[in-house]
TrEMBL record:
Keyword tags: Disulfide bond, Glycoprotein
Native source species: Hucho hucho (huchen)
GO biological process terms held by the UniProt record: proteolysis
GO molecular function terms listed in the Swiss-Prot or TrEMBL record: serine-type endopeptidase activity
Protein name: Peptidase S1 domain-containing protein
Record-annotated Peptidase S1 domain positions: 21-74
InterPro entries per the UniProt record, alphabetical: Peptidase_S1_PA (IPR009003), Peptidase_S1_PA_chymotrypsin (IPR043504), Trypsin_dom (IPR001254), TRYPSIN_HIS (IPR018114)
């Protein structure tokens, strides 16, 4: 099958990395207190949601570099 409306040049290539969500807004620290940022080597790795004082839920692939018992930043 041929789909002439699909751009063939983009097939298999990654889009340019964008550091922001398209149309997103910059938030202030503390504006979303249930949101957590999981870091690895001082870099943001994944986001998570705080569900209790001791638990954060995140995507499964985000736990690859997380070491249980490490210091938690507040």
């Amino acid at each position: 099958m041929v789909f002439p409306w699909l751009p063939l040049a983009d097939c298999g290539s990654r889009p340019k990395f964008r550091s922001r969500i398209v149309g997103g807004n910059i938030s202030k620290p503390g504006q979303f207190p249930w949101q957590a940022s999981l870091h690895y080597q001082n870099q943001h790795l994944c986001g998570g949601s705080i569900i209790t004082p001791r638990w954060i839920v995140t995507a499964a692939h985000c736990g690859i570099f997380i070491h249980i018992g490490r210091t938690v930043k507040k």
